[in-house]
């Protein structure tokens, strides 16, 4: 292992930073600075608000290097986790952050394509379990791997960047993530998506009027902010983006015309919805109905 980041890790990390990331030399106070300035601080925001480019895990009471290297002992059927992009730790070697790069960053706020986000949450959960990483880590800032304050190891020769399918091969993915773990890390984004979406299906009817979209958009953002009651709340930028995405998607797919068609079908059945077809009430497909009804972090086949 080398004691300095390899060029690939260094350049990729710098290229994926937010334009103005949170940063600090003291976690008690975070500042927003241009990326060039932020790179001079010990802690820095590693993921831009719209996407997840890095999965970072916080190791608390033991060596982060040993945490990664020792991941095979607990299940002989599973291989050791792949080499991460970097491991940054204190001078003592106790504690630290383990980071994996995602080759195709995952959108946090796309209501039309939430399956990759659910997959990312499942992978993150499985890696957190295998590594014994801290559940309380908010995931907003990481130990800056290009700052001289940290001991930085780069185990991977090819950059430590993988697609989610590759990462999933090393762990047992959950069919359903426990409730408490849906309220940390990437799971918070999924939880907020699901809760806000369920509320929006009926709430949108109040805004079906000329020029009603702006009021509907504000209502979604306000509601998302109210639902952001996690132990480590999501940054407002992410909350606002989720609210905007849900507002846009629901406004497009839940329309007065579609609602009248559903009511018409019900009328032909004597006011009763088609037996066993509640998705017609919502004006969505059967597959979409059951996917949302499950409200679990499903993974690809």
Structural topology:
Blueprint: H1 7-15, E1 22-24, E2 31-32, H2 35-38, E3 43-45, E4 51-63, H3 64-69, E5 86-89, E6 94-107, H4 115-131, E7 141-143, E8 151-153, E9 161-162, H5 164-168, H6 187-203, H7 213-227, H8 236-253, H9 256-268, H10 279-282, H11 286-294
Helix pairs in contact: 6-7, 6-8, 7-8
The tally of domains stands at 2
Question: What is the CA-based Rg, rounded?
Answer: 22 Å
Helical fraction: 25-40%
* Portion in beta strands: 15-25%
What is the overall shape? Answer: globular
Question: What is the string of SSEs from the N terminus onward?
Answer: HEEHEEHEEHEEEHHHHHHH
Total E-strand runs: 9
Kindly report the average pLDDT value. 85
Care to describe what's here?
The protein folds into 2 domains: about 5-175; about 180-295, Endonuclease III, domain 1. It has 11 helices and 9 strands. The chain is α+β, with helices and mostly antiparallel strands. Helix 6 (about 185-205) crosses helix 7, helix 6 (about 185-205) runs parallel beside helix 8 and helix 7 (about 215-225) packs across helix 8. The strands form 2 sheets. Strands 4, 5, 6, 8 and 9 form a 5-stranded mixed sheet that branches. Strands 2-1-3-7 form a 4-stranded antiparallel sheet, with no helix packed on it. It has helices spanning about 5-15, 35-40, 65-70, 115-130, 165-170, 185-205, 215-225, 235-255, 255-270, 280, 285-295, and strands at about 20-25, 30, 45, 50-65, 85-90, 95-105, 140-145, 150-155, 160. The protein is about 40% helix and about 15% strand. The radius of gyration is 22 Å and the shape is globular. Strand 1 and strand 2 form a beta hairpin.
């Amino acid at each position: 292992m080398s004691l300095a980041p390899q060029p690939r890790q260094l350049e990729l990390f710098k290229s994926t930073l937010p334009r103005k990331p949170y940063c600090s030399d003291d976690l008690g106070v975070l500042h927003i600075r241009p990326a060039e300035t932020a790179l001079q601080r010990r802690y820095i925001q590693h993921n831009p608000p719209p996407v997840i480019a890095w999965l970072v895990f916080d190791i608390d009471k033991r060596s982060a290097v040993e945490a990664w290297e020792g991941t095979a002992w607990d299940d002989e059927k599973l291989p050791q986790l792949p080499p991460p992009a970097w491991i940054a730790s204190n001078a003592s070697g106790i504690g630290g952050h383990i980071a994996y790069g995602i080759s195709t960053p995952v959108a946090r706020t796309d209501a039309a394509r939430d399956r990759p986000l659910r997959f990312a949450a499942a992978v993150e959960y499985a890696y957190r379990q295998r590594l014994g990483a801290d559940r309380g880590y908010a995931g907003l800032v990481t130990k800056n791997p290009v700052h001289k304050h940290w001991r930085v190891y780069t185990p991977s020769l090819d950059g430590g960047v993988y697609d989610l399918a590759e990462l999933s091969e090393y762990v047992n993915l959950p069919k359903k993530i426990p409730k408490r773990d849906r309220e940390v890390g990437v799971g918070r984004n999924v939880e907020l998506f699901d809760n806000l979406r369920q509320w929006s299906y009926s709430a949108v009817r109040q805004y079906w009027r000329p020029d009603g979209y702006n009021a509907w958009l504000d209502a979604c953002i306000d509601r998302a902010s109210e639902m952001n009651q996690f132990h480590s709340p999501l940054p407002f930028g992410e909350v606002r983006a989720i609210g905007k995405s849900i507002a846009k998607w629901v406004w497009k797919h839940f329309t007065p015309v579609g609602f009248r068609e559903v009511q018409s079908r019900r009328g032909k059945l004597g006011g009763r919805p088609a037996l066993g077809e509640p998705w017609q009430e919502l004006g969505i497909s059967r597959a979409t109905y059951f996917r949302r009804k499950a409200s679990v972090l499903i993974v690809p086949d």
